[in-house]
Amino acid sequence: MRSKIPYALFFCLFSASTFADYSLLIDGVSKHFGCKKNRHNPCEYNEINPGLGIELSSKTSNWGIPFIRAGAYKDSYSDAAAYAAMGVRQDWEISGPFRFGAGVMGGYLKSKRQDGAIALPFIYLTYKDLALELGYIADTQILNQRNKAKSLATLGFRWDF
């Protein structure tokens, strides 16, 4: 399974002509909800998750902004994790340089405790070229039965350049 991540990264680079806009992703924090604490499960998570990624997107679509992204970060168990994902987002002008948006992405996550499909709906607030993204997974146990927390929220930044 480890060999799938280089293929996903190659796909991201190969698609650079289709996806002409680049963004730097800065992974930040997570918050776990609904964990039942007991002596076998202390519910202790690392909720500071530094990491970096890159996104390639196209801002020319009328029906939404398709994107592909890949990156690596320190997960909630303090292990290294890597991901590759694709999705679509749509934003609307609020006032001047402020925009609000929503999107969904799905892809592949590889870490010590998770190896497989991921899905993440998210909302974001953009000021000029900097976006604050808030993602939420309502039931993390659908993706991995070993997850102890019921739901998960993520917070990160996207810098378009």
TrEMBL record:
Annotated signal peptide: 1-20
Entry annotated with the keyword RNA-binding: no
Cellular localization per UniProt: Cell outer membrane
Keyword Transmembrane belongs to the record: no
Cross-referenced InterPro entries: OMP/PagP_B-barrel
Keywords from the named record: Signal
GO cellular component terms given for this protein: cell outer membrane
Gene3D superfamilies: 2.40.160.20
Organism superkingdom: Bacteria
Protein name: Outer membrane protein beta-barrel domain-containing protein
Organism, scientific name: Iodobacter fluviatilis
